[in-house]
């Protein structure tokens, strides 16, 4: 309730006073713009398979929107399943487990800063079997009805 009244109050101020109020009250006012741009980037990651990609991993055959967003990372992602665990046992390496969902802001930040980095991917691919899990796999079912 306080947030709504603050916004109403700010809109009733003159433009310069309102902007100053919003700057001190809401210091991250450009966050919405960044998120919009990141959302466009996410939608572009779901482009058709006709586009050429430098990397394609096992997530390319999954149905989850979140897993598909990571299908072209240089990290050799596995979906949750026996194949990943058998490979980890065979190689004698631990599991690197990453859990997220398609609308998670920090999941996208992590992807941009780490999972798209070729040096990080090289270390993950060498020292771990990396598994990506969609925390909200139910969203896929909800959208399909």
UniProtKB/TrEMBL annotation:
Query: Where is each Spermatogenesis-associated protein 20-like TRX domain found?
Result: 56-135
Q: Which InterPro entries match?
A: Ssp411, Ssp411-like_TRX, Thioredoxin-like_sf
Q: Name one GO cellular component term.
A: chloroplast
Q: Where does the secretion signal sit in this chain? A: none
Taken from the record, one Pfam family name reads: Thioredox_DsbH
Gene3D superfamilies linked: Glutaredoxin
Protein name listed in UniProt? Spermatogenesis-associated protein 20-like TRX domain-containing protein
> Which species expresses this protein natively?
Vanilla planifolia
